Amino acid sequence: MSQENKTLLKYKTIALVANSTWNIHNFRLNLLDKFVNEGHDVIVIAPVDEYIEYKENYPKVKHIALRSLDRDSTNPIKDLILIEELTRKYKRLKPDLVIHFTNKPNIYGAIAARRAKIDSIAIVTGLGYAFIHNGFIKQVTTALYKYTSKFHKKFIFENIEDRELFENENIIKKGQGISVKGCGVNTNYFQPYPNGQVKEDTIFTFVGRLLYDKGVKEFVEAAKLIKLRNPKTQFWLVGELDPDNPATVEKDELIEWVDSDIVYYHGFQRDVRPFISKSDCVVLPSYREAIPRTITEAMAMAKPVITTDTAGCREAVDVGVNGYLAKLRDSKDLAESMRKIMSLTYEERKSMGQAGRDIVMRQFDDRLIAQHIYDIISNIN
Which of 160, 307, 316, 359 is the most exposed place for a label (fewest CB within 10 A)? Predict the structure, then answer.
């Protein structure tokens, strides 16, 4: 047994706490695999949803329902109830380490872990709406993170710039945070598939929740500009409306886009691979991400990508090698990036896609990320 494994075995039982089972199913199975394979007892604490099906493949993992977490509520009474529920669960389950994901578990789980005298880690999975919009919610979130940060042994960030922001604003102590390359991509699941044939029409695809903060409107505005000269170019939207998110796209506006033949809306798809495989380029003009999972999935499938020159997003793109970066909130510049893709030959696009696949294999493979996080935990004092 390595020295690292000996060190980490002081954390025999590890609990993962998230704001949804969907989050565990889509982003954390690599950690479940790693912890289970290394001989740890694993507990997941999260609100139960349809993605509880993950348990079929993880019979050794204990799932505990979290009943009082409302990820979009700003009601302090609800948050106090959440702290009490987490405290009771931590005292009853007695994990040796709790790993929290997303803002509310990171903040309120820290308090609960302190009360239960259990070591705690926060994994910051992107700063989201609160930090994109400089308002009261950001001020409150920042203050809460600053107060509770001392209760965490470590902060793990999914990009470099989020860590630097927390350090520069003195939310965490110097050396308390460390960065990894996102949550990782299953490169066995997301593999290159031939998309049939060389075709005249170009297909640009947006995959993700339909939020204005994801740059959906810029995608549609760029589509309008492209279609003025190239009316046969196709623009696909793959994703769902998120009515609980204040940045969700208005239903009437989505209908207008579809009725105007600007975009084709494929709706929510649990398996996005068939849509990525038929696309020539995947586009995510987001305002801020951890590492954009949609983009790295497309890269893993050997597709050129376009995203924005902003925190998290730019870490995934080597400009001109595997894709392009557009200016933030700039549909005209986004259209220019799309025209660059359209000007490439089939072989040039194929080469760009393969370069993206190579980058993912070196930096973003979910097994590499799981090992990195395991090593970080191993070195906690």
Answer: 160
